[in-house]
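Researcher: I'm preparing a figure for a lab meeting and need a structural model of a single chain. I don't have an experimental structure, so a prediction will have to do for now. The sequence is pasted below. Please return the structure as tokens so I can convert it later.
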Amino acid sequence: MKTSPLLIIVAVALAACGKTPEATKPVAAPAAPKPAAVADTRIEAEISSALTPETPANPGNNALKDAADDIIANYPGKTATELLATPEVKDKLAVAMKKLSADPVLLKRVNSTVDLAAQLTGIDGAVKLDLDMKGYDQARTSRMLQSVLSEDPQRIVNFLVGEIGEAAPDLSYGGQDRAPNGVAIVPNTLPAPVAAPPAEE
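Model: Understood. Here is the structure written out token by token.
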């Protein structure tokens, strides 16, 4: 797996956040940690920082929450996945996904986040996000719907990144194939391309 520029940016940000206490007396240098521990700690820190949603305060957020909660109330018993197909949501989802597919920076952020999580789980090669939303509770369903109803690809990415970040400990140290929030990181096995039939003479 290639190292993402996101790793470098996050590492610099983490270093910049450190505070240097006033020197009052000499302190013995700490023992050097094992290389594996350093790698795990760094990846965890990068996951935590990279996966922190960047949703700014916005008065429109309350309106989005009200709209999302109304949709949930209007379709009792429907899962989060099923709610995406409702008339109130499906068109907005299509608009948001079209915007997202046209934004390489946001797509790269999602892909880099998936790659970071894959490093924690020890999966080599190409990977992809497998998100199962059928078990979402009302609060998580509302957050998901708010991101879609906004038609803002940044909000959708923030939601996905937050979900992956929450799942990372369960997928790595918990040894689970799928985290309780429905996130799984799986090998990306694409089907072999189909050869075009020979042209008739």
